[in-house]
């Protein structure tokens, strides 16, 4: 069964974006995954197609209305077992482990927030899993949704061609990835480390692991603490 992604957004024209190119685009052409968008505004009932209102209790910004967003979610994923994600800076940080869990399923529904936020009641009532891609704030959830889908699609079976490619990357095994080199042997006075051209595959794997540990300790010691 092909992986099926549904994205709820006020800007469906932003999709598939970069996912229409390269590996993801070719995989979509082959039918390995599909993407459909749902215009949230289509579920508004007034002639102005209003989707937001002022926050209860006062304050700046506007909030996406629960009734309208709920109708959009129900339309896209009623009687559907796919996880429902809400892109949100207050969500749990996306991890490679969570990406692999999502890729192992039959699809995902992603809600792209806008304005000040989403009414908490629809988050609870529709079981939305809040997901963050980093400690910063975007104008809306669309770029974040594209990143989540990019991470998922690239590890779907057969998308990368060599499925082993996805097993030797940063965050797989709890470490950052080791440095990479290729020809020419010497460039601007810098040589490829001799160990990589030695032909000793056991020594090469040991060097790569040591370098991965070193880089992780220098740049992301929190990953080692988790391990």
TrEMBL record:
Offer a single GO CC term for the protein. cytosol
Top-rank taxon, per record: Bacteria
Q: Detail which positions bind S-adenosyl-L-methionine.
A: 113, 133-138
Tell me its EC number(s), please: 2.1.1.228
One function term, GO molecular function aspect? tRNA (guanine(37)-N1)-methyltransferase activity
Subcellular location per the Swiss-Prot or TrEMBL entry:
Cytoplasm
Keywords, comma-separated and alphabetical? Cytoplasm, Methyltransferase, S-adenosyl-L-methionine, Transferase, tRNA processing
Q: What is its main location?
A: cytoplasm
Q: Where is the tRNA methyltransferase TRMD/TRM10-type domain?
A: 4-226
Q: Which GO terms describe its biological process?
A: tRNA N1-guanine methylation
Give the catalysed reaction(s), semicolon-separated: guanosine(37) in tRNA + S-adenosyl-L-methionine = N(1)-methylguanosine(37) in tRNA + S-adenosyl-L-homocysteine + H(+)
What is its biological role?
Specifically methylates guanosine-37 in various tRNAs.
Q: Which family does it belong to?
A: Belongs to the RNA methyltransferase TrmD family.
Assembly mode: Homodimer.
- Record protein name field: tRNA (guanine-N(1)-)-methyltransferase
User: Which organism was this protein described from?
Assistant: Rhizobium sophorae
């Amino acid at each position: 069964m092909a992986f099926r992604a549904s994205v709820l957004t006020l800007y469906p024209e932003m999709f598939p974006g970069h996912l229409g190119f390269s590996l993801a685009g070719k995989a979509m052409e082959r039918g390995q995954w599909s993407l459909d968008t749902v215009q949230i505004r289509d579920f508004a009932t007034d002639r102005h197609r209003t989707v937001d209102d002022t926050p209860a209790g006062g304050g700046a910004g506007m909030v996406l209305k629960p009734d309208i967003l709920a109708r959009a979610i129900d339309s896209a994923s009623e009687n559907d077992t796919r996880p429902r994600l809400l892109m949100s800076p207050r969500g749990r940080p996306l991890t490679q482990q969570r990406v692999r869990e999502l890729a192992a399923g039959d699809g995902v529904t992603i809600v792209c927030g806008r304005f000040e936020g989403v009414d908490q009641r629809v988050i609870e009532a529709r079981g939305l899993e809040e997901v963050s891609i980093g400690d910063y704030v975007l104008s809306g959830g669309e770029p974040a949704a594209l990143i989540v889908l990019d991470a998922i699609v690239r590890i779907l079976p057969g998308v990368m061609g060599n499925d082993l490619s996805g097993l030797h990357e940063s965050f797989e095994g709890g470490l950052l990835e080791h440095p990479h080199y290729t020809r020419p042997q010497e460039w601007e006075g810098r040589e490829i480390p001799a160990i990589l051209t030695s032909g000793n595959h056991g020594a090469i794997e040991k060097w790569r692991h040591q370098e991965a540990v070193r880089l992780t300790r220098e740049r992301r010691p929190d990953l080692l603490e988790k391990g």
